[in-house]
Amino acid sequence: GVLFGNGNGGFPTTEDGCRTLVERGGMKISPFFMPMILPNMAASNVSRRFGCTGYNSTVITACSASNQAIGEALEVLRRGTADVMITGGTEAGISQLGLSGFSSMRALTTRNDEPQKASRPFDSMRDGFVPAEGAAVIVLETLDHARARGARILCELAGFGSTSDAYHLVQPQESGVGASRAMGLALSDAGVAIGDVDYINAHGTSTPLNDLAETIAIKKLFAQHAKSIPVSSTKSMIGHSLGASAALEVIPCVMSIIDGILHPTINHEFPDTDCDLDYVPNVYREQNVETVLSNAFGFGGQNACLVFKKYRESV
Predict the structure, then answer these.
(1) Annotated catalytic sites, by residue?
(2) What is the pTM of this model?
(3) In this predicted model, what pLDDT tens digit does every residue of 223-232 receive, in sequence order?
(4) Does domain 2-309 have CATH number 3.40.630.30?
């Protein structure tokens, strides 16, 4: 089966279509316009390319879409609907229309004269996210299927948790309760105690509200353990690719388990007294990693978290 996450569909195509409509009239709109802007084409195109005739869906939950898609792909495997799922996320959101919309919301960084330092999650000088785009794909399969084909098993996707803030159109819940519940559900689903988490890959967008709310949510769930767990933001180095971001962040999560290396949160130069966790500031860290929690939160109060564990062959 195929299950993908996406945030905006074909934003650049929408923009080009609108420009053509205004400048040249409706009869000049491409016949491919409609299928090119439909978000579900993310999964459809992959299915057609590889001949996947099983379960097929695209999840549209803003910036949590990839984690939601990967988590739902896990559920498809668990209930026996498929034995292999191609899953992940994709986003092509760099367009004048999209950037203008985010800019009007004051969601983007204004550090245009120093772009290499613009994304600075959890830093007191953060002022918005750096927009990006891309895609990432992972293959999930049942243990029996992986063994049968002699696969190198990279890790186990062990848990998935999803909640809604039911709070605000774009702002995270200040108390962090929705995000905290999603993390807790993912850990419970994986059978992992809060004291056994070795690393948290944060949503960490570099916006004032998100980073504070995520910090509060982590402290709410992990209590006395919170400050001893390394937390870092991939977005500090690659920006925020919206619906694709969580899938892109799965890769360093898995590699941290394989290689024992935690990537840093770069540009963490001016600590925020309210964001007071261990953000692995500026320099990577070598550490044995058995269990990883990966967070993704989106506009509309969408929260989706995944738990990855080191795979050990059962005796």
Answers:
(1) 63, 203, 240
(2) 0.96
(3) 999 999 999 9
(4) no
